[in-house]
Amino acid sequence: MYEGEEWHATRAVYDGLVPRLTGVHRTEPRNVTKEFPLPPVVRVTGGRAAGKSRLIELLHESYDRRLAVAHADLADPAFGHPGLASAHPAGSAADDGDGGDGADRGDRGDRGDRSDSAAGGEDGGTETASPAGPPGSPGPPDQAEPSGPSSGAARSGPGGAPGHSIAVGMLRPAPRPGQAAVPGLAAPPVPGATPPPYPVDTLALSRLLSLLAYQLGVRTAGPGRPVTCHRLTLGLLLLTVWRPDPATTDPHDATRELREFIAAWYADRRGASGAVDIGRWLEEIGPRLPGLLGFPGLEGLVGVLLTTARQLLPGRRAGKEALRWWGGSVPGRGGDGFARLFEFVNAFRQRDEDGRREGRSLLVAALLADVEAQRGLWHSFSRTPPPLLLLDNVHTPLGEHLLSLLLPAYDNGARDGQGGRGGPGRGAAFRPVIVTTALGDPAAYRSCETVRHATAHWRPPGPNQPSPRAWLLSLGIPALHRDDTQRLFPAAGWSASLAWPVDRLSGGREGIVRAVAHAVSGAPAPGDGNALLGRPAPDDGGGGGDGGDGDGGGDGGDGNGGRTVGDLLLARLLPDPGMRDELALLAPALTKEAAVWLMRAVTAPDRSAARYTVASRLAAVTAELDGGHWRRIPWRWPAGEPGGGDGVPFVADPALRTLLLHRLRTRLAGRWETVQRRLRAFHNSAHLDEDAMGHGLAQLHHTLSLGRLEAVVRRLHHRLPGMSAAEWLSWVNIICAAPPPPPPPAPSAAHAEPGTCPACIRDSGTATHDAITVLVRGVWRLSDPLAALPSTAGLLQISGALLDIQRARPDEAAYLTAADAWPALLGQGVQAPELTLSVEDRR
Predict the structure, then answer these.
(1) Cα Rg for the chain, rounded, in angstroms?
(2) For residue range 214-261, what is the model confidence (pLDDT) as tens digits?
(3) For every residue of 679-726, which 3-state class applies, written as one string?
(4) d(CA 344, CA 366)
(5) 331-353: burial string, b at 16+ Cβ within 10 Å, e else
(6) pTM score, two decimals?
């Protein structure tokens, strides 16, 4: 990356807004004036490769270990922490009932071993965090029963002493000698049993919350203090541990059984008479806890969990506060904390979605309550900076669900200045600074630039703003200006000829510009975009892409050679490799109707599975193209001309279309002619012969994409007398926007012999025909988005061709106007189909 770590499109957020919300400078060890006592929940929206994920990375790199920081990518199965494994035994603790895909999410290796932070502490003053691992994912119903160390076999305590029964899928104290097992607690799972149908979001949310809490507890070296999540830990542990017997139908018995379990949990570790030695029990199951809790391989979690469990003993303030919070937060008509905890856990065992959502809301509220408890009695005087939560890609279903739970919990107690532990007179609630990013249309929100100095257009919601969403501060990432492109390139890699191709390839996406800059950092830049896209891609892809929302993966080469810069850039915009090839075949289509027809035409007859049907495939690509994160620029289709009824072109984002067409021209070059011929046939609804003069505009567009320049010139020459200058030039505009075919050009592109054009016979000469040839060839070549800078000689040829055509049509002054306007526009980087008769006519 060049110019340090700056990511200019979002600089106002990471260098201005976030430091003012946390009260801590991003790069210097000093405080800054906080703008709000209670910060807004920031949501930054942009397209792929616009800089969303890099914003999260910059904030994490800047504040990690200085504040309590947690980050997660909600579009990644591992939440952006690839150190987590994803293997779960059948019937494991995952069978909380959520189902799901078993994708584990957790901490990355560079977080280090958490055992160094497992020091004791009280609520609000400890240096540890204690998230229980979330329930794991159940194995498939037909998976064999596990065996070995993690199986459901009962085990004796150390030295062969009886006392601790451990089974996959449940953690429970074994009965004391001579005592029957406690009824109602989990029995070993039945092999092959199907778990209850609970929503997958409970499982994902549990994992996410436990991961966030785990990160928030990392020991800090700056002004921030780690957060101990006792309340959240207790809730997640009980969800994992308690498995009521389905035969238990009496809720009073279930409450009693849960009470007995919690009493055992809180028993003094020294071993009071009649109590379970909970510390010894936890130490024995410690080696298997990561697998049971859905975090295999995360060794640091074991020590943290053991430490936290010991902090939840009755003599510790942490245990009292945690149970007191649950007792006061779980809705119910009566009962103490034990009874309310039963109501909370039971909500996850019910089939009613309202009950499950209420339970999930409590988990989110527990996390915020743990943050609130961090401040201590002296927070107002010590100016302790709040924790920082960084959530990437909250546009995903899990992200939207999390926000729907987080905002009401954030709002609760915030409007009246009373926090969860604060109560009257304690001042403003203590809330984390939350920065989220989302994939979407940035133009729908005000630019990030507006918060450079102050968030003047946002105020904390008051009584007249009842919706918790009023806490959202929504911002859009601005597009990169063309003038900013050069400074992102190394001096050795920049050339003036790259300015326009890079601008067209990026569409204002800073991540694409940086990737190109990185690709040319080691060698002089090529003279045109085609050579640039054909370069071997650097190994790291340019550093600073948009990660989960568009970095893509794989080699992009599909076995046809090494990965090129073109492959890399397209993967940034379309992470799904199957979608890349699907849309590359459809990219030449002018309309959705043509794309549907083409998809049917190129679908092999044996692809009959439902997932390969035209309808399902078209639904997938249409859903992608309809996303608000694309920059749609429709073409001006001539009024009344067939072929543009449902919008032109089908892929309306110019940068995406350029990269898709380049892929079709290079990686799928063998299919270029087939695709163009089929599209040309689609627009030949009258079934005219190939040499007929009556073919329409769309058909001529695809004819030129086949390299058949002379065939197009003959038809344009034929139509010249019967059309006004404006109509005829609009045809040239659309036709010359045709993507060029793969080299070498088709033999049919050569000039025909004099006299083969009917219009030439009518004109008694080829002067007009030759002028049209020069015009179409010149505008077509300069309208390739990857073309280099136009030469003065080339522009003069286009101007001279239009003057020659005007001589053949002296009654049409528009040709004379175009002779001045088109070369000027082409010289400024404007291309077909955007050419107009004046600069003022352009959008």
Answers:
(1) 33
(2) 889 888 888 888 998 888 877 776 665 554 444 544 556 655 555 565
(3) HHHHCCCCCCCCCCCCCCHHHHHHHHHCCCHHHHHHHHHHHHHHCCHH
(4) 12
(5) eeeeeebbbbbbbbbbbbbeeee
(6) 0.79
